[in-house]
């Protein structure tokens, strides 16, 4: 536990939740230290790296089936230089329900983590274009509907290909975003300063 008693328990959380929760907690902390508990090596490495890159000092101690990361707020200079702003809009192009093709179950977990992460960004993309099986992410039963709705509330335009919805028999099941068409999708992609294809 941190000397002043601040403790964040991230055990049992899947990527990227430990990083996101730690970022929120450290941002809310005026000064001092925060102890973060994680129970897997990936979370330990990811939280420590994110905190160091943000300019915080991290001390990691391994315990039984867990690590305690003691994060001291703002005790070093940030490692990353701020990147130059991108001119034009940022558009994420999603063409499948999952990330990668080798394992559908893992791909679905990774897509959920990706959408969770961009929904938590202070500067999310300007638009998300859903095509092919990617339209299923915005339809009833999707594991990321809440996140897509949160992104819409932040002003992110969510465009779902009407031809794709019709092909999969999902035209009446769209729950987030709006039906779009190829002309609008092409215009959105061509006008973007940056397109991130998934």
In short:
The chain has 2 domains: 7-72, 2-Layer Sandwich (Translation Initiation Factor IF3); 90-197, DsrEFH-like (Hypothetical Protein Ychn, Chain: A, 3-Layer(aba) Sandwich).
What does this structure look like?
- The protein is an alpha/beta fold.
- It has two domains: 7-72, TusA-like domain (Translation Initiation Factor IF3); 90-197, 3-Layer(aba) Sandwich (Hypothetical Protein Ychn, Chain: A), CATH 3.40.1260.
- It is built from six helices and nine strands, in the order βαβαβββαβαβαβαβ.
- The chain has helices spanning 17-28, 41-53, 104-120, 145-153, 162-167, 182-191; strands at 7-9, 33-38, 57-62, 67-72, 90-94, 127-130, 157-161, 178-180, 194-197.
- The strands form two sheets. A five-stranded parallel sheet has the order 8-7-6-5-9. A four-stranded mixed sheet has the order 1-2-4-3, with helices on one face.
- A hairpin with a 4-residue loop joins strand 3 and strand 4 (67-72).
- The model has no long low-confidence stretch (mean pLDDT 84).
